[in-house]
Amino acid sequence: LRDRTLMSRSMSRWLAEQAGVRTARNVERTLMTRLHDAEVIDLASNDYLGLSRDPRLAEAAAEAIARWGTSATSSRLVAGTTQLHVDLENALADLTGMETGLAFSSGYLANIGVLTALGGPGTLIVADAHCHASLIDGFRLSRSRTETYEHGDVADAERLLADRTEPRALIATESIFSVLGDEAPLDELLDLAVRHDAMLLVDEAHSLGVTGAGRGSVFGTALAGHPNVIVTATLSKALGSQGGAVLGSAALREHLINRARTFIFDTGLAPSAAAAALTAIGIVIEEPERVASLHANAEAIANTLVPTLEPGQFDRGAGAVQSIRMPDARTALAASLVARAAGVAVGCFRPPSVPDNISRLRLTARADLSSSELDTACTVIERAIKEQK
Ligand code: PMP
Questions:
Q1: Ligand 1 near 232 CB (within 6 A)
Q2: Alpha-carbon span 131 to 141, nearest angstrom
Q3: DSSP string spanning 117-178?
Q4: Does residue 263 carry a pLDDT above 70?
Q5: In the chain, fewer beta carbons within 10 Å around the N or the C end?
Q6: What are phi and psi of 101, to 5 degrees?
Q7: Local confidence band at 28 (pLDDT 50, 70, 90 cut-offs)
Q8: CA of 35 to the centre of ligand 1 (A)
Q9: For 306-336, what is each residue's pLDDT tens digit?
Q10: Which residues have a Cβ under 8 Å from the Cβ of 384 and sit 6 or more positions away?
Q11: Atom number, ligand 1, closest to the C-alpha of residue 234
Q12: Cβ(136)–Cβ(91) below 8 Å
């Protein structure tokens, strides 16, 4: 009587149907193997400052493991808080110019944690249309009424806030958007937030270590520490580690410790990840040339590729992220595979992972790319795109 299928028949049938739809639309996702530097020029990862393999981070992580073991072993509220967590949170607050920090075990969980702790029926969320999935999941789980404004359109956001019936409101945006790499109008959004007695939540996943001399866009636009501003961040991109954080007032931190379920019921950030991120923060401050060469490399990629593409095809990002619009999902995938076969890894973003339904190649600059690597990468990418015509 034991059925040998691993799933119910109805579920198996549905999975097969779903897989068929993905194949027909050229949008099936696959795992991409991480290749070593010797095998590929990497313009796909988010290791913007090249810190993920810095020996100083590895050494700090190894020391933390020797001292604390490989796990935080429990929630931060039970027995999982080490001095490294406290030092990391203080260093993140100093770096970004915010009053306090609270570390989460990922940026995804930081976004969900802060949104669910501040949201609910009494809070209207007004969100940029290009917000990342982790913010969107936070909106949904918070059970707040959530309204979306046109990407970067402050007047549209104002229209939504003007209709507010809830006692509280929160505007949500990224500072540098994850797919197109463009910047949000933070100054104007804060102005709007203040006029409507709303909070402004800024996800700095792609800005920390990149803009504002590495301190992020909120710091760079002199908004850090403003009472209406909350910052979220990841430790896994420019900081070369793993984990996330929420930065804001002491009252917010206290509230999150008591109410953010992804903080309370999650095992604390691994001490090794905290130690690596803490070391990375020191490097961002002490070696400003890294941030400068990241920007120089991003500019070099744009300057080389723009003349080889159709007008408007290259979206020039404000930080590391640059993107190239492709005619459709099939050509985007084909171009990325051709580039990879020629030794250059680029991101291939297709629906539903693109906010505007336009399939793209996503290129990320890194501080540690040499000029010959940049030349080779651009030549390969140009050829891979031309081949699709
Ligand atoms: N926010 C944005 C804008 C992101 O791009 C990402 C990661 N892709 C996250 C949050 C999630 O961060 P983490 O990878 O640390 O979970």
A1: no
A2: 15
A3: HH-STTEEEEEETT--HHHHHHHHHHT-EEEEEPTT-HHHHHHHHHT--SSEEEEEEESB-T
A4: yes
A5: N
A6: -135, 155
A7: confident
A8: 21
A9: 999 999 999 999 999 999 999 999 999 999 9
A10: 335, 336, 338, 339, 342, 344
A11: 15
A12: no
d(CA 353, CA 206): 16
E strand map for 297-343: 314-315, 321-325
Question: Which protein residue's CA is at the shortest distance from atom 1 of ligand 1?
Answer: 205
Asked if residues 250 and 219 have their Cβ atoms less than 8 Å apart, the reply is no
Nearest CA to ligand 1 atom 12: 107
How many CA within 13 A on the CB side of residue 60?
24
Structure tokens at 171: 């505007």
Q: Evaluate if pTM is beyond 0.90.
A: yes
- CB of 203 within 8 A of CB of 135? yes
Q: State whether the beta carbon of 106 lies less than 6 angstroms from ligand 1.
A: yes
How far, in Å, CA of 44 to CA of 325, rounded? 16
What local confidence, expressed as pLDDT, does residue 360 receive?
96
> Best mutation site among 201, 208, 234, 236 for ligand 1, i.e. most ligand atoms within 8 A of its Cβ?
234
Q: Check if 178 has its Cβ closer than 6 Å to any atom of ligand 1.
A: yes
Residue 245 pairs in a beta bridge with 103, 233
Name the residue with the closest Cα to ligand 1, atom 15.
107
381 C-alpha to ligand 1 centroid (Å): 26
Q: CA nearest 182: which of 281, 302, 28, 4? A: 302
